[in-house]
Amino acid sequence: MFHVDLTPHADREAYAFSLLDDEEKARWHRFPVPAPRRRFALCRAALRANLAERLACSNDRLSFGYGEYGKPHALVDGRRTPAGFNVSHCGRHGLIVFASNDRIGIDVAERNPRRDLDGIGSMVYGPTERRLLALAAGSRKVHLFFRLWSMKEALIKALGSGFSLNPSRFEVPAAMLEGARSSEFRFPHAPSNCWHLIDLGEHRFAAAFAYRIPDPDGA
Amino acid sequence: MSSTQDRLRQLIAEHLDLGRDPDFDAKLGDSGVSSVDAVAFFKEVNQAFSLSLEPEDCLQFGTLRELVTYIDARAG
Ligand SMILES: CC(C)(COP(=O)(O)OP(=O)(O)OC[C@H]1O[C@@H](n2cnc3c(N)ncnc32)[C@H](O)[C@@H]1OP(=O)(O)O)[C@@H](O)C(=O)NCCC(=O)NCCS
Predict the structure, then answer these.
(1) Can you tell me the distance from the alpha carbon of A5 to that of A149, in angstroms, rounded to the nearest whole number?
(2) CA nearest ligand 1 atom 25, residue
């Protein structure tokens, strides 16, 4: 796993842009303003550099395909590779994680205070999560809101569903609601699959990482 | 311009940092809006138009124009 510095920097951004393929450049142009362009180009270029090394191929042989809900996967010469990765970016921070399969998800969120955290939480948090959020105040509330957000988003990204799975339909493990930094997790709709959830939060941002624990038969 | 579009434009100005006047025909996925901002925005849309859209419902709207059409159809 590594961190990508997303601080504005014209030379780094220009170099990152030069590593993108035509489809990615077209996407870059469709973003209406500089900030999402920068986040996308710097993270995608860092992802490309790493994948090219891991897959022992040149950058121009690498492209990306997308799952039903937008989760990207790597292609070499147009053929899908088993390499797993996931990307998240927020403000000045990008995080990228790699694994041997794509059942991984990562999320980073800067803890910017915003109004009506309880109202936003009511859309995406379960009953226990909402109760805990309602009890918290001030900076503790902001901290808890983003901690929960990053953990739940890491899980829906690991699954690949994005928000097509309503995050209020599951809750993070009780041990983690009580402060534990990691725990096993099962989605209520698919309890036979076990996931590992890790809170990566630190002073600069909330962040979390989730991966599927392989079944004993290796599946 | 429809009053729904005006009201959405106002909500966007207040709640979504798009950095420019919204293009109602651009793909929402190309807006660069983060998921937390998107959820916060749809919460405001629910309140303003007495809707109860869930996060997964919001994926059906490819553009803001489609959201306007949805809201107007429900009002009509
Ligand atoms: C992935 C998702 C759940 C998270 O978005 P987010 O928190 O805003 O963004 P993050 O930075 O954590 O993650 C984005 C990255 O996740 C990856 N990703 C995209 N879809 C994914 C999915 N279904 N599962 C896992 N990863 C996904 C991509 O690599 C993407 O970065 P890239 O496009 O620069 O390569 C996204 O599907 C989503 O729902 N976004 C909402 C934004 C939106 O739709 N806005 C328009 C409405 S106003």
Answers:
(1) 22
(2) A157
